[in-house]
Amino acid sequence: MRRGHHGIAMPLRAAGAGRSQRGATCSIGGRRRGDGMAQDRQGLLPGLHGLRAMAAMMVLLFHLHAIPHLAVPAALPWIASHFGLGVHLFFALSAFSLAWANPQAARQPGPYLVKRVFRIAPLYWLMTLLILGIGAWPGLARVAAEFAFVFNFVPGWQGGLVPAGWTVGVEMPFYLLLPLLLRLRSVAGMAGATLLATLISWAARLWLEAAMPGSDYPQTALVTNLFAFVLALLAFRLFERVRGSAREGMAAGLAAGLALGLGAYLLSPLAAPLAGPGNPDLLLFGVVFAALCLWQALRPSWLLRCRAALWLGERSYSIYLFHFLLILALRPAYARIVGTFGQGGAAYLAALAITLPPLLVLAALGYRLVERPGMALGRRLIAWRAARRPAPLGPGLRPGP
């Protein structure tokens, strides 16, 4: 197992981009402490939206290096070695924010699942149709698996037809698991589930690495990434307990210290021995991302709750799905930039300067024309289903004549 080979290799190889390092989706979010605060969950948690923006930029910067083979600025080597882990930050954000935004999902999963499908599927299906229109026909079974979001369970198909779409194949099946996990309402219960999920992810990665040498499946399978989601659910249960209490500030400080301290250690050469079989370093990054979610949910930083960060966070799904194809399309322009500046920080920054504006335009259009209408359609379907349900009978009333 090579250091830094965390799940992005399959999309890169499928696109002909060659070498890869660390893996590179998204979610929606929204506040609470205890059962009695479900009605208080109005709107988003701004710190989480800002973290989505950060995750999207991490993945963009990583792929701007990995796809056209641009050297990163010498002062920022982590772009090449670790920014692909932005996808695992996305996984953590999905779990935390969905637990926040769907307090009834454990008892009534229907509306939550409808919202998820209409939030994620329309843009992904549109991108799939685009790929099918410009590429070779992959076969009916492959297309059916893509539209049903079960391609993650078929080794060889896990990368998805959409470049970098493997993460959607991980997230969509997790959405089915979330209502079951949310039945664990205590911190102790969720801590037990977190320990079990982490052990399962580590053991599955070890087994798959041995059983499928040279394959990307050990990095892209749902089971090997489950730890990132469940660690964030543990952070959410802690958030519920401390939010609005005298312990809130202390909890935010401890979460910040854990995220920054452990993150700095994992980015340093001291953590190199952890990048062995099963990637224990990746499991520890799951702790970092869960702590980041808890910290920013309790005490959002100014930078992550500013208007620009919120705008980017709301459109991070479109940014994610469009960025890979845009970078592929701009490779001739990147080659001319390298021919002018040579490899190095100047060329990388120039490439970023010509990539970001069209990407933001595409993201704005994708959000406006596909994501928002999809979400609105999901809400209408939920309202229609609710209107068809019979009203509950009052006390002392019974059905029938």
- First-to-last CA distance: 71 Å
* Number of helical stretches of at least 4 residues: 17
Class derived from helix and strand content: mainly alpha
Helix and strand element order: HHHHHHHHHHHHHHHHH
Q: How many strands, which pairing sense, and closed or not: the largest β-sheet?
A: none
Organism: Roseicella frigidaeris
Biased composition (Low complexity): 15-24
Keywords: Membrane, Transmembrane, Transmembrane helix
Protein name: Acyltransferase 3 domain-containing protein
Protein described:
The chain contains 17 helices and no strands. The protein has 401 residues and is an all-alpha fold. It has one domain (9-385). Helix 2 runs parallel beside helix 15, helix 4 packs across helix 10 (222-242) and helix 4 (86-101) crosses helix 12 (280-298). Residues 47-356 form the Acyltransferase domain.
